[in-house]
Write a structure and sequence with these properties.
10 helices
Length: 369
Amino acid sequence: MPLKIRSDHARFKEIVRGKIKENLRKYIQKGEMIGKKGKDIITIPVPSIDIPHFRFGHKDQGGVGQGEGDVGTVLAPGSIEQPGHGQAGQGEGQHSLEIDVSLDDLAQLLGEELELPRIQPRGEKQLETQKVKYTGIHTAGPESLRHFRRTYKQALRRQLASGQYNPALPIIVPTREDKRYRSWKIVSQPHSNAVILYMMDVSGSMGDEQKEIVRIESFWLDAWLRSNYKGLETRYIIHDAVAREVDRDTFFHTRESGGTMISSAYRLAHDIVKKEYDPNRWNIYGFHFSDGDNWSADDTHTCVDLLRAELLPRMNQFAYGQVESPYGSGQFIKDLREAFGQDERVALSEISDKDAIYASIKDFLGRGK
């Protein structure tokens, strides 16, 4: 029986996994899902999944085939219409399930759905290490992997069902059949470090809607890169006419009213990389988000020079996402496309709204850099 239960549980997990993949595009657009993030777990609402079960009627309803009707009466859904009547009920309605999914599993689903190639770390960083991943609960295993909470609950259920439980003397003694153990497998994990430098324009033209798009997209970028690297650091730079490094919360909630000089962010990014991240030991990624409005053409030329001479030689990839705003000119991505249109190290994406996040992730991660 335990083998049958494990088989059914595995099948149920595959059904849930399929439901998540089926609705992944919708989940990607939802910022509230990110708010349900634990240390390594995401809580995802999944559409109701009906499990087959028997439904018993009342004893006074007669036996099989003793309902109303004559021999030969055609029975079909909706063949007898009865108007609704009576008062509102007090019972619960049907709700969608909330499933806990690990960040690793979520990243794997993202990669499968978007057909993302695995990232190949550069140079000396192409090493792998092995990691123990706990995958479920079994009825057999070494005592060092015994799951105490599951064992206790199983013993309590058994004693309650058999009438052995005494509330006045609540002693729970597990038997051999009560014991539950963690199951595990060895998985290979890249033994590489990476750093992401997020840069964002926070001038007045970048409103709350634009920042929410950046927040959602950066979450999925993080999830995929973390699944490819053992260690991942993130640094956050905001800029208007001047750039400064901030924490994550400040990054997504700061709004200024000054002008925009994008080169200030690129200079600060270069300073951070040069001082703290040796390209021979780190895989370096830059993601810059803006509405495409820069102070002047001269500053745009400075940005191009900084990218070409300082940042790109040190980075695996530089990505620029232009978030559509009613106040931005949208010129910057055109200038970058003209300067780096054929450069494999540069990924460009135009993000018109939340619906475009899905394609933008593919633009940024689809090269496997």
